[in-house]
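Record pair follows.
FIRST:
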Amino acid sequence: MKKLTALFACVIFGSALIFAQSAENQDKATSTKPASEEMQALETAYTLAEYGYANSSASALIMAAEILSSVDITALSESSDFAGKKGTSVAAEQSSEVDYTPQQLLDDAKQLYGKDKTMKAWAASVQKLVDASKATRGTVSGPYYDVDCVSGNGGTCTYTITYYGNEYAEAGVYSLDGCDYDIFVYDANGNFITQDVSYSSNAYCSWVPRWTGTFRIVVKNRSGYAGRYRFTTN
């Protein structure tokens, strides 16, 4: 009887701990700290790329490529902290094939500036930066990115990623075709942490985990058609 009572007490105590952690997360986990320099640089580059494609601006595409080449960003699939992804991912051919990588931005810029010698020289100098960033990239480290398509009308993709306790965590999604995306963050116990449900095409969340563990990052497409996005996390 004593063993049964002790076991019951442990269960109640454990449940109380989970609840307490949940309450603490919801009250304190969301960070008011501005986005890191890396995330701000990526946002600036993506905005320039979007402008460049929308306005056939070679200079905007080259500048975006130059900024991106300065950020050491790695595919999320190469991170040991990435535990997987699931959701209503759709075929890439159903959406835009544009991906804001430095090399594609430069290649597309070349189609726009033609014989402009100034633009050509600038693109050549940025190409050297792009090539150098590929050659010198060392051990895998954040930030990380992933590009995927997700169905419309509330379709989601969910990322399961390990974040470290008491360290600043960031997650952002940038639309590659104008869809309205939201982000929701949950801890390993399913407790809601934070979200960005603004009407902007892009979304960004930051928080400080209270302990090291896995978190679920849900990317939701609010638009009525399938969309392609670029997900970034640190």
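SECOND:
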Amino acid sequence: MILVYEEDSFVIANKPHGLPTVPLKKNPQQDTLLSRVGHLCPKVLEVIGKNEWERGALHRLDTDTSGLVVFAKTQEFYDYLLKEQAEGRFVKTYKSDTDGDTEETGISSYFRSFGEGRRKVKVEMDYRKADSPILYTTTISKKESGVYMCTITRGFRHQIRSHLSYLSCPIKGDKLYNPSVLPTSTEPLMLDCQKVSFFLPDGRVFTFDKTTSDRLQ
């Protein structure tokens, strides 16, 4: 099931592993979560996003990551939540199954792209060495040995994957950041966005948790 929740101004979809969230600019006909959601809810395709080809998608997940993605159905809601996200009031929580163990409750850093094709990002503590002077924080809550709930507000590409690897807790199935995973492995990346929370325009807090299908307003 792709759509898990819908209101007049937005819809929430559950992305499977291996499906891109939005198309590449050069390939607008690509099979993506956006195209599938747009088929079921055409209004998201009428929204003009920060990048035109991303339409109503308010955030993205890595292709290998699964979980919840919020799409705006109106331009007004898109513009509103984009601002909320920029100000750190759009919270996303991920379940991460790892090959490590840490007692850290969080990590903040900058990031720098590196490697072949700049596919990976490296944790940097000095903003002068980073791609951006913005500090990114991952809050970590230990669920059980090797399993963590990671919460972010403002997100950078591969943020949780890179942060956990830096803490010696690389995610299971992560071909980029887990040295024990072979490039030929078919094991899925064990990173799943399970909960989203944000303020609605009327001031109420909206929370959706896909593990319980609970929504609080």
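COMMENT: The chain has a mean pLDDT of 93.
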